What does this fold into?
Amino acid sequence: MQSPGLCWALLSTTEAFRQRSQEAVYGDPLLDTTTKGPIISSNQHAKILEHIQNGKASGARLLHGGNNLGETGYLVEDTAFADVNEDTSIMREEIFGPIASIAKFDTENEAIAKANDTEYGLAAAVFTENISRAHRVSAALESGMVTINCWGAPDSNTPFGGVKQSGFGRDQGVQALEGWASVKTVKMLLLSDKESS
It folds into this structure.
């Protein structure tokens, strides 16, 4: 329910999530058939692989992935961990890589509390068939962007940016222009011709 890497899930969704993560097609991002391209840099690639090792060492259950792909480039297999302890780095940090850390919740309030128990708040997603729940949970999440029944796909006309340690200000949309503007208030009292002479 928080970032793409931090998932608070009902037990029934864990297997579906694992199956979906196995469908990725890795390779050249310019090809129509590719669904996952390379990591942006060697430094980020190394950080992601370190997070995977930390996840394995933490005792979390590896559902899928965890491997570096190929001899060249920075491809990392979609990786999903389940039964993740709330104190582990793969649950507490923004990884910016293909790692999902899944933990269970029993109630809506518990899910919201767990999702908000982080110093980050870039983006969140809520998956539900209940529109009232969608509104209630999205309002309660401390996040710069919330999507309902989808992930990501921000529109260029809507503001995007995080809260807490995930940044300040907004990119895109009219709100992005505020960083380039200096607001000034001018107050004027109009005088009659007689008063102005």
